[in-house]
Amino acid sequence: MVAKYDENGFLGGKIQEWIEVHRRTHGPAFLQAQQLNRENHRFIDGRNINVSDTYQLTTTVLFVRLMELYQGVMVVADRGMAAPTRILFRAFLEAFFHFAAIHKDPKYLDDYQDQFERQRKTLVNRIRHSNNPELEDLRKPIDARLIAEIDQIDVRQVSIEEVARRAGQHNTYLTAYAILSRAVHSCASDLEAYLDYDKGDQKIVSFRYGPTDAETLRTLCLAGMTMAEALKGISLDFAEDRSEYCDKAVESFRSLLPVTGKDNV
Questions:
Q1: How far apart are CA 178 and CA 56, in angstroms?
Q2: Are both 93 and 193 inside the same structural domain?
Q3: Are 223 and 253 in contact (CB under 8 A)?
Q4: Are residues 34 and 153 in the same domain?
Q5: Do 85 and 201 fall into the same domain?
Q6: For 38-47, what is each residue's pLDDT tens digit?
Q7: Is 245 exposed, middle or buried (0-12, 13-18, 19+ CB in 10 A)?
């Protein structure tokens, strides 16, 4: 088999030839994704935000994060990088869970912001109770005043599964998000993608490394459908309804999805 890369790996050189073929093969999906990306930027560029409006500020910042992660998914998917694509797609979905939960459940905004204090308390306590000498400089600022302050923090942890439920995205959490999590944690099941097996006795015969388009179409379409829903939501927040464009974008991505993936959206 002729290698699809050289000593530059995914970063340049021979991989560019593969990328060009890849883009042509999945041209409609890449084109639709790029069009949506431009629409996102047209909406957000020059946007005035009322920083005293906690809801508007938080949802807008989350939308901008979704935009960045969406582009990250496109960049690594373009190069056929399977594991980074799954990892970034999972991070993208998690950000969307928060975004959608705030829109669907107004009470979640307070819970979302409160998690910062809980995370702060957890971090301080971990450093405080550690005996590792390498953390000594970090322990020094933890005085009685800070300890008393964090001891007053009483915030319930909100799991991502709960966030997904409150966002109306629990099915996505149980399916796509769970599968993508295996890549994040480098689970043994996810590492099988790097192995080639003999079809007869199923013995490992070689290692597999290099670009693949096995998940390109499904990833671009599902990420695009999700990003379009986010644009629809944020546009309504600013009373600039982009529903018509977003609904058409969702349908365009849906029409490009592999048949086996359409029922799991």
A1: 30
A2: yes
A3: no
A4: no
A5: yes
A6: 999 999 998 9
A7: middle
Residue 80 backbone phi and psi in degrees, to 5: 70, 30
Tell me the sheet residues that pair with 204: 197
Whether this prediction's pTM lies above 0.90 is answered by no
Range of the domain at 197: 24-42+56-105+183-265
Would you say residue 51 lies in a domain?
A: no
With respect to residue 61, please indicate whether it lies within any of the assigned structural domains: yes
For residue range 197-226, list pLDDT tens digits in order: 777 777 877 778 899 999 999 999 999 999
pLDDT in tens, 126-172: 988 888 888 888 888 888 888 888 788 888 889 999 999 999 999 99
Q: How many distinct structural domains can be found in the chain?
A: 2
Give CA–CA dist 252/219, Å, rounded: 14
**213 Cβ neighbours under 8 A, 6+ residues apart:** 22, 25, 26, 80
The verdict on 37 and 130 lying in the same domain is: no
Question: How many Cα atoms sit within 13 Å of 134 on the Cβ side?
Answer: 0
Same structural domain, 75 and 31: yes
Residue 167 identity (one-letter amino acid): A
